[in-house]
UniProtKB/TrEMBL annotation, chain A:
GO terms for molecular function: iron ion binding; oxidoreductase activity. InterPro entries: Ald_Oxase/Xan_DH_a/b (IPR000674), Ald_Oxase/Xan_DH_a/b_sf (IPR036856), Ald_Oxase/xanthine_DH-like (IPR016208), AldOxase/xan_DH_MoCoBD1 (IPR008274), AldOxase/xan_DH_MoCoBD2 (IPR046867), AldOxase/xan_DH_Mopterin-bd_sf (IPR037165). The keyword Oxidoreductase applies. Residues 20-135 form the Aldehyde oxidase/xanthine dehydrogenase a/b hammerhead domain. This is CO or xanthine dehydrogenase, Mo-binding subunit. SUPFAM superfamilies: CO dehydrogenase molybdoprotein N-domain-like, Molybdenum cofactor-binding domain. It comes from the Bacteria. Keywords: Molybdenum, Oxidoreductase.
UniProtKB/TrEMBL annotation, chain B:
This is Carbon-monoxide dehydrogenase medium subunit. SMART domains: CO_deh_flav_C. Pfam families: CO_deh_flav_C (PF03450), FAD_binding_5 (PF00941). The keyword Oxidoreductase applies. One of its GO terms (molecular function) is oxidoreductase activity. It comes from Streptosporangium canum. Residues 1-177 form the FAD-binding PCMH-type domain. InterPro entries: CO_DH_flav_C, CO_DH_flav_C_dom_sf, Diverse_Substr_Oxidored, FAD-bd_PCMH, FAD-bd_PCMH-like_sf, FAD-bd_PCMH_sub1, FAD-bd_PCMH_sub2, Mopterin_DH_FAD-bd.
Length: 802, 289
């Protein structure tokens, strides 16, 4: 690397655009398009007896009404099951429009297309759907025991069941190891539902070009390449005739990796059928009831340990609430059950999960993707052990850590990418040392005593995690230097505001030796790059970052070769600085990359003076070689892919100090500290921003957010009035420190950072509240009203007096 | 989330507004700051045939401190009232309460009178009007009436304003001498409607003994719950007043309901805690007055 750009806190180049209203989000496009709206099921479980659209026909501006019966054969089938797994014996997905049965409130039943969204909603309001209401199945434990079925052909509502078991070094199974351990504990944990809640909902805008018989679709997605393939397949179009573009996307957090959404195939289909532009922009209520949720699990834990707190055996049973459908397979519970082990060496481990259908919105990954539940389980376990032994909570963690010299460390499990769970690198003891220093762990007892003397209750909590990031299979990068000296970088995965434009430009500028301003970056546009997987699993920097670096190295090599010819020097004696190829030690002898780009493309026609230098009479070509040599291509561009052997494993530890009000039971976070290790930092400022945002979402999950379903399967808080996303006023200042243990698995030595912040927060806050209150916390989120109930239960008091 | 169709009217004078409203009758709705009405329209929870926008009626954009109290015109926004030093001096409870209403951007548009007519039991201003014994002035063509707070809040999201009537102003009586006020509440997030909240007013005699102690509670009934706790405080100086029994008296008068954010017990408990805190704060203010 020739420039110091890599590792610098470069300001986000996308911010001036995004923060001054210059962003182009889905609903900023297609101002003249027809609008789609949907009639969605008001019932959690019902049979559709009849759909009567007659009253809607008269709405002025109505264009079309579609039900399941109108769909062509390919679209009439259930949507794809994206990630099959042998344990997912009863995977089920929805139809784009409900056929006969609806299985959750919000399921789309009828699509209406009208001149604008107002009229489309007017028409929706006039469509009468006659439902035979069926008994809904709500609540994961209820569903696991219910005779009532969400899918008639899925016995016990069990979609998947998976057991993974790792014996101890001595060959003991987990049950045996627990039974023979000096100490054993058993307890139950609960985590409630939350959701990604991007500020921009989903949205699709389709343009059909009848002359060219080609389709362009803009969609607010985390994977435009895969949406493209899905649309081509579902609409029976040749792939080259379909373009999919993710415009500016106002947050994804996981929910937009699911695809194709019903709307993503229905809207393009209607656009073709009507030969008109059609757009659908999801509103907030639709997002609550018809996209996806996550988190809800009930866990039963049994653990055996020795006098030092060393875990000898751990057995975890997970009931995972999967909602009504499983389009994204069982990725979430797989991640929970494998990432549960965190930074620890567990003697023997047995984990079993059942993925249960309920008549609620489907469950797919939300930032953290099953890890917050996993970390809650493991970290509560560590705290239980410490409490049982009367030991310091950090000491118990310390004795269980994998040591720095034990990497690569094989946990003996199969991870979410279908490959072995082998940690690449890390230094957990150092991370803990840094965290204790940052938060002042050892001096906290004095602060606590001091607060108690003033009548205040404060508590400290800790949580550790390891996060598999940068999962495969691959990403690619394309880099082109044009004859004006500009560098055009593209990669197929998409951006939702993470700062890819900045980070990828930093990598390219550093690799190529060009000023940052000359580099432009395009993501998520299938016209520019057709092969990609998508943005999820904290993988963009690792996957596309390395692919772009590799592509740059190819371009650099080619540039040096061409420049070597022009400068009559050996390529090895050249360097690129500030966009100029120079002979090492002879700064006078140089050639701009722009000129190299001209020379890379032998021309017959000149359209400016620069180009004239590459034409056939310019005297630059040798007569004994063809203008484009064998094995070469014209142009100064390169493309490469990065496909890793395995995931990289980032890690971190958080600590918080909370205060609980003795009278009102309000919970306030006084301090929040994070030590974070994602290998080499490309841009520390962006990593910190990701951590801050993640912690904010984590605080939401710990103290505010829950999807409240009643026994009828109605979501009671489907608005921002009652689903409490924290405001900036609820988020503490986040203090961060970085540890860098580079990944040996990729050229840049990096690991993912996108999800990290959110992962341990519920565990940390539970730990801190438990410390402040002296009451066990086994369910999150926790509200003041919940804490009030816990206090009363623990003192046995039945009155509500102050 | 788009409203159903409606006819939009933007009258230029109060007279024209009254005529339009009278014509629309049952099917008309006043649009003031829109901070409560627009979400209800977008969620199709309200479907008025006629929307009468009063935002051009500058004659209602008034805020006057009169000898007996503060008169707030229908177009005076929360933010203006909150920041007025004259209002703060004449009736501090208004400013104390407004600081707890939503967030600055909402206070920039929402109106005090709109909040009263909307009559949300979790809202602060109805409790203020009830505690102070204020009134709302309602107009229709050729007729104006003042409805005292005691008769104004008739039920959950229901006020005495009849279809076709325009609330033109609200009146909040002055703070009597040797009196103090306070507003205490607990909300889940900064600026949210409160889980429970208590406005308190304490008055002292020349010997600095409590002669009046009243509270109004939010979120514990379909309308503000007014409780006189003068007796419970026992005519003593604030330092030796029995605030705890006053708080118990308040709790006994409340019948909160559970919702997804809090149990009824917790709300009742909070009301007791907040009543004590608000009464103490108000008494301190009264001593300083
Ligand atoms: C996110 C958010 C948080 C909020 N938090 C709080 C809070 O914590 N506490 C609180 O008290 N409020 C809160 N509010 C509500 C806010 O204070 C509203 O502005 C207020 O309740 C209504 O005032 P408005 O002028 O916006 O009325 P509008 O929304 O315009 O009207 C509300 C109702 O009153 C009627 N109306 C209004 N003015 C008149 C009139 N002059 N004559 C007859 N009828 C009339 C309308 O027809 C309508 O039915 C919040 C609002 C939002 C959006």
């Amino acid at each position: 690397m020739t420039t110091k750009l890599f590792g610098e806190p470069v300001r986000r180049r996308e911010d001036p655009r995004l923060l001054t209203g210059q962003g182009r989000y889905l609903d900023d496009l297609g101002g003249d398009a027809l609008a789609a709206a949907f009639v969605r099921s008001p019932h959690a479980h019902a049979r559709i007896r009849d759909i009567d659209v007659s009253a809607a026909i008269d709405v002025d501006g109505l264009v079309a009404i579609y039900t399941w019966e109108d769909l062509p054969a390919l679209l009439a089938q259930p949507l794809p099951l994206l990630i099959p797994h042998p344990a997912l014996t009863h995977g089920r997905t929805a139809h784009p429009l409900a056929r006969d049965l609806v299985r959750h409130v919000g399921e789309p039943v009828v699509m209406v297309v009208a001149r604008d969204r107002y009229l489309a909603e007017d028409a929706c309001a006039l469509i009468r759907v006659d439902y035979e209401i069926l008994k809904p199945v709500v609540g994961v434990e209820e569903a696991a025991q219910s005779a009532q079925l969400v899918h008639g052909d899925v016995p016990g509502n069990v979609g998947a069941h998976l057991v993974q078991e790792v014996p101890s070094a001595a060959g003991l199974g987990a049950r045996e190891a627990i039974e023979t351990a000096p100490h054993t504990l058993a307890f139950r944990l609960d985590i409630e539902r939350s959701a990604s809640m991007p500020l921009e909902g989903r949205g699709v805008y389709a343009r059909w070009d009848a002359d060219d018989r080609s389709l362009r679709v803009y969609t607010s997605t985390q994977t435009s390449t895969s949406v493209r393939m899905a649309i081509a397949a579902k609409l029976g179009l040749p792939l080259p005739k379909v373009e999919v573009i993710a415009p500016d996307v106002g947050g994804g957090f996981g929910v937009k990796i699911v695809h194709p959404w019903p709307e993503e195939v229905l809207v393009p289909w209607a656009a073709i059928l009507l030969d008109r532009e059609v757009k659908w922009a999801e509103d907030r209520r639709e997002h609550f009831v018809s996209s996806a949720h996550e988190r809800a699990q009930v866990q039963s834990v049994r653990v055996g340990f020795d006098d030092d707190g060393r875990v000898l055996g751990l057995e975890v049973n997970i009931l995972h609430d999967h909602g009504a459908y499983t389009p994204y397979g069982i990725i979430v519970p797989i991640i929970t059950s494998t990432q549960l082990l965190g930074p620890y060496k567990i003697g023997a481990y047995r984990v079993e999960f059942s993925s249960i259908y309920t008549n609620t919105v489907q469950v797919t990954p939300y930032r953290g993707a099953g890890r917050p539940q996993a970390v809650f389980c493991m970290e509560r376990t560590m705290d239980h052990i410490a409490a049982h032994l009367g030991a310091d909570r950090t000491a118990v963690r310390e004795v269980n850590f994998i040591r720095p010299d034990e990497f690569p460390y094989d946990q003996g499990l199969i991870f979410q990418d279908g490959r072995p769970l082998i940690y690449d690198s890390g230094d957990y003891p150092e991370s803990l040392r840094m965290l204790k220093e940052l938060i002042g762990w050892d001096s906290f007892p004095e602060a606590k005593a001091q607060a108690a003397a003033e009548g205040r209750r404060i508590g400290i909590g800790i949580g550790c995690y390891v996060e598999g990031t940068g999962v495969g299979p691959y990403e690619g990068g394309h880099v082109q230097i044009t004859s004006d000296g500009r560098v055009h970088v593209s990669t197929g995965l998409t951006s939702q505001g993470q700062g890819h434009e900045t980070v990828f430009a930093q990598i390219a500028a550093a690799e190529l030796g060009v000023p940052l301003e000359r580099v432009s970056v395009v993501t998520g546009d299938t016209r520019r790059f057709g092969y990609a997987v998508g943005t999820f699993a904290s993988r963009a920097a690792v996957m596309s970052g390395n692919a772009i670096a590799l592509a740059c190295r190819k371009v650099r090599e080619k540039a040096l070769r061409i420049a070597a010819d022009a400068l009559e020097a050996a390529p090895g004696d050249l360097e690129i600085v500030d966009g100029e190829v120079r002979v090492l030690g002879a700064p006078g002898s140089s050639i701009p990359l722009a000129t190299v780009a001209v020379l890379s493309n032998p021309l017959r026609y000149a359209f400016d003076e620069e180009a004239a230098r590459a034409t056939q009479f310019a005297g630059t070509s040798a007569f004994d070689r063809p203008p484009v040599e064998e094995g070469q291509e014209p142009g100064l561009e390169g493309r490469d892919y990065y496909s890793p052997l395995r995931s990289t494993f980032a890690s971190g530890m958080h600590a918080a100090i909370v205060e609980t009000d003795p009278l009102t039971a309000e919970i306030r976070i006084l301090r929040y500290a994070v030590v974070h290790d994602c290998g080499n930092l490309i841009n520390p400022m962006i990593v910190e921003g990701q951590i801050h945002g993640g912690v904010a979402q984590g605080v939401g999950g710990a103290l505010y957010e829950r999807m409240v379903y009643d026994e009828h399967g109605q979501l009671l808080n489907a608005s921002f009035m009652d689903f409490l996303m924290p405001y900036a006023t609820e988020i503490p200042r986040v203090e961060t420190a970085h540890l860098q243990t580079p990944s040996p698995l990729n050229p840049l030595g990096i690991k993912g950072a996108g999800e990290a912040g959110v992962i341990p927060v519920s565990a940390v806050i539970a730990s801190a509240i438990e410390d402040a209150e002296g009451i066990g916390i086994d369910r999150m989120p926790i509200s003041p009203s919940d804490l009030f109930d816990l206090r009363r239960a623990s003192t046995g008091r039945s009155t509500s007096e102050t | 989330m788009k409203p159903p169709p409606f006819d939009y009217h933007a009258p230029r004078s109060v007279g024209e507004a009254l005529e339009t409203l009278a014509g629309a009758g049952e099917h008309g709705k006043v649009l003031a700051g829109g901070q409560s009405l627009i979400p209800m329209l977008n969620m199709r929870l309200a479907a008025p045939g006629h929307l009468v926008d009063i935002n051009r009626l500058t004659e209602l954009d008034t805020l006057d401190v009169e000898p007996g109290g503060v008169r707030v015109g229908a177009l005076a926004r929360h933010a203006r009232v909150e920041r007025s030093e004259e209002v703060a001096a004449a009736q501090p409870l208004l400013c104390q309460a407004l600081r707890l209403v939503a967030h600055p951007v909402i206070r920039n548009r929402g109106t005090v009178v709109g909040s009263l007519v909307h009559a949300d039991p979790a809202a602060e201003l109805p409790a203020v009007l009830a505690l102070l014994g204020g009134s709302v002035r309602l107009a229709r063509p050729g007729a104006v009436r003042d409805v005292p707070a005691a008769g104004f809040f008739t039920g959950l999201l229901e006020s005495a304003a009849e279809p076709g009537e325009l609330a033109v102003s609200a009146f909040f009586p002055l703070l009597p001498p040797r009196s103090g006020t306070a507003f205490r509440e607990v909300a889940r997030r900064h600026g949210d409607y409160a889980l429970a909240g208590v406005a308190a007013l304490v008055g002292l005699d020349d010997d600095l003994r409590i002669t009046a102690a009243r509270v109004a509670c939010v979120s514990v009934g379909p309308a503000p719950v007014l409780v006189d706790v003068t007796e419970a405080c026992g005519h003593r100086p604030p330092a030796s007043a029995d605030w705890a029994s006053a708080a118990r008296a308040v709790q006994e008068r409340t019948a909160p309901e559970a919702d997804i954010h809090a149990t009824a017990d917790y709300r009742r408990h909070l009301t007791g805690v907040l009543a004590q805190q608000a009464l103490r704060d108000a008494a301190r203010e009264a001593l300083d007055a």
